[in-house]
């Protein structure tokens, strides 16, 4: 079972490097690196959804059993990637795991973020958390990082609040019990975006429980993967 993982906005897929040590051999973590970060830092960031989905599609092997996981921004991209797979007639994931993300129609709050000035965007990132403070205070690193995060937020900003479409697979939504960005009510709305079953699971932590509650989250993800393999 391949577990394809998409990171949150501005983040490298290396955030998932530690996951494999917590998972059994029958689950293989496959981080999907987006252009402009991590091992693809020399690539130009992509700020258009269709082009990004095409890039990520090339990294998949839908012919083998798999699960798709995305955190925050990554959850939206994972959802759209699942829709693309369905449209192409490829096998859908056994489950789509959306983590720390409001349902698509509730994403309007991010609409103008990519238009903020560098100073305003840096302040927004500081308020949100998840970005290392030493990065936010380093002008040279910010010069590299801000175009990447701005590209991600442009995709979110142009995504709209009513993007149509559903997936056919099971959807499991994870939410942090102290997350002000994606609370339980906004996460439960994901139920309207699948023709399959839907489940919500609580994880202890704020919007970045991906870090603070890693072992708890990975255990929950493993349970979904194991259930998917048994079908």
Compact overview of the structure:
With 231 residues, the protein is α/β, with parallel strands linked by helices.
Describe it:
The chain has 231 residues and is an alpha/beta fold. 36% of the residues lie in helices and 14% in strands. The protein is globular, with a radius of gyration of 17 Å. The model has no long low-confidence stretch (mean pLDDT 89).
Number of strands: 6
Number of helices: 8
| Sheet with most strands: strand arrangement | 2-1-3-4-5-6
Largest sheet: 6 strands, parallel
What general form does the structure show?
A: globular
Walk me through the topology.
Blueprint: E1 2-6, E2 28-31, H1 49-57, E3 66-71, H2 73-88, E4 95-99, H3 118-128, H4 133-136, H5 139-157, E5 170-176, H6 184-188, E6 198-203, H7 209-212, H8 214-229
Key attributes of the depicted protein:
231 residues, 6-stranded parallel beta sheet, 8 helices, globular
